[in-house]
Design brief:
The complex is a heterodimer of chains A (263) and B (195).
Chain A (H helix, E strand, L loop, with lengths): L2 H6 L1 H5 L5 H13 L1 H21 L6 H18 L12 H22 L12 H6 L22 H8 L7 E10 L2 E10 L2 E9 L7 H4 L2 E4 L2 E7 L4 E7 L2 E8 L16
Parallel strand pairs in A: 3-7
Antiparallel strand pairs in A: 1-2, 2-3, 4-5, 5-6, 6-7
Chain B lengths: L1 H17 L4 H12 L2 H17 L10 H17 L18 H6 L8 H8 L2 H9 L3 H12 L4 H8 L3 H25 L9
The chains are: A alpha+beta (263), B mainly alpha (195).
């Protein structure tokens, strides 16, 4: 075999499509020919590199959300009259998706963290929320070089508020707060920045009066909302709306509209 | 009536065991093909709905993954593929084989010229380079690189002649290498070779 023939077979060899006979003849050639050997080694390395980079092994919230969408659609194929409408317009499907998404958020949390239960007083949450006033530049690094968990915009919109599609997710990451990992996601809604913290439920104590109303602390008004299993708390810091959501498996986020009401 | 219900349940559970585990792969391919998260989800969902409706056409024991990809490819080509043809395609013949090697080899006296490039090129660069390929090349490249289908399987999935698969793979690779090289030069990862 000469160099020209060896080059002809290059990609068939790399893609493992060449016959055994050809593969052996190429091997014999590149054992003797330095230049062809270099090209084969280079192309093999490039191929391996591209394949590795293409595979995205991040845990995908999107996949779990999609799975519940597909299962819901299969159910409508089996029982056409039971659940009409196509996601995301059917409330029935939507609540499934919301629940699934919320569960995944919790799962991501539990898997990726080493929780320390702290009996934080409510007031100290203000400290947590000061993180929200950091510059948004931190969150543009969605790429994500900091080793933080990054989700795509759609994934988080589903996770945090499945029916709010116009929110633009700028970024998300895991942050340490007193030894506990909290998820921090920043959305833009027009001129308002919405900073969402996802905090393990057992790390927060919310005063009972907040659950259904509002509370003043340190000159800041906090509004509470209970949507069944998940407690939400809102307050404003400058132009930022801060939402703190506790995460539990039984979350129903469907009835919750961030920013609605008195805030 | 009762039998019908039992039959339906069996169909459903067969489908869930056989077809659903491939969703991961379907989604990652759909993401590369459509470049858009919600399009990719819709494409996969549509594929599963169609596959479920035609589940009685699937031959038990045959390759379910290839069957699902065939359905997805079909829907993609008919409904999602970009309407405009990419003008890039015309210039492929001007790109040399082993383009990157040609550009990098002999630049400096390094043992492995690719190592420097690999260290700098980001996952996103590679994904973008793939996503920017014209659809025809992208399809075969993604099925091969990402999913590891053989040329023969790709021919069946995409309804192409084997020779067409080979030539698209070849030309897709050239474009891909050229794009990666351009990224690397534009971003200053490497200096352009003096002509």
């Amino acid at each position: 075999m000469n160099c020209e023939e060896a080059r002809e077979l290059l990609y068939e060899i790399i893609d493992k499509e060449a016959s055994e006979v050809d593969a052996r003849r190429v091997q014999e050639h590149i054992d003797k020919c330095r230049e062809c050997f270099d090209i084969y080694r280079f192309e093999g390395a490039i191929q391996e590199f591209i394949t590795r980079k293409l595979r995205d092994n991040r845990p995908s919230l999107r996949l779990e959300v999609l799975k519940s969408r597909v299962l819901a659609e299969l159910a409508t194929i089996d029982h056409p009259r039971a659940a009409k409408g196509r996601w995301p317009f059917s409330p029935f499907t939507r609540s499934l998706v919301a629940a699934a998404a919320a569960i995944i958020v919790v799962a991501v949390f539990l898997l990726g963290s080493d929780f320390v239960r702290e009996s934080e007083s409510f007031a100290s949450l203000t400290e947590l929320h000061r993180v929200a006033t950091r510059t948004l530049d931190v969150f543009r690094d969605v790429g994500n070089t900091t080793g933080a968990i990054a989700f795509s915009r759609e994934e988080l919109t589903y996770a945090v508020a499945p029916h709010v599609s116009e929110f633009l997710l700028i970024g998300g990451c895991l942050e340490q707060f007193r030894g506990t990992q909290v998820g921090h996601f920043v959305y833009l809604d027009g001129l308002t920045t919405v900073s969402v913290f996802l905090v393990p439920a057992d790390c927060i104590e919310m005063p009972p009066e907040l659950v259904a109303g509002k509370v003043e602390r340190d000159g800041i008004t906090y509004f509470g909302h209970d949507c069944g299993g998940c407690r939400l708390m809102f307050h404003r810091l400058g132009s930022t709306l801060v939402v703190t959501a506790t995460t539990e498996p039984s979350v129903d986020l469907v009835g919750f509209v961030p920013g609605q009401g008195a805030i | 009536m009762r039998n019908l219900k039992v039959e339906n349940n069996r169909k459903r559970s067969n489908f869930e065991t056989e077809a659903l585990p491939h969703m991961d792969a379907m989604l990652r391919t759909a993401l590369r093909m459509t470049k858009d998260g919600s399009d990719a989800e819709d494409l996969v969902q549509e594929t599963y709905a169609k596959a479920y409706r035609f589940w009685d056409k699937f031959e038990p024991g045959s390759n379910c993954r290839a069957w699902l990809f065939k359905i997805m490819t079909n829907i993609f080509i008919n409904e999602y593929r970009s309407k405009s043809r990419s003008p890039v395609a015309a210039s492929i013949e001007d790109i040399d084989d082993s383009y990157l090697y040609g550009q990098l080899a002999g630049m400096e006296s390094t043992e492995n010229p690719e190592q420097r490039l690999f260290a700098k090129i980001l996952d996103d660069d590679v994904r973008k380079a793939i996503e920017n390929l014209p659809d025809d090349f992208k399809l075969v490249a993604v099925l091969s690189f990402l999913e590891g289908f053989s040329y023969q399987e790709i021919a069946e999935i995409a309804d192409l002649q084997l020779g067409t698969v080979k030539s698209r793979m070849h030309r897709g690779r050239k474009l891909l290498q050229k794009q990666l090289y351009n990224y690397a030069v534009t971003n200053g990862y490497i200096k352009e070779k003096a002509q």
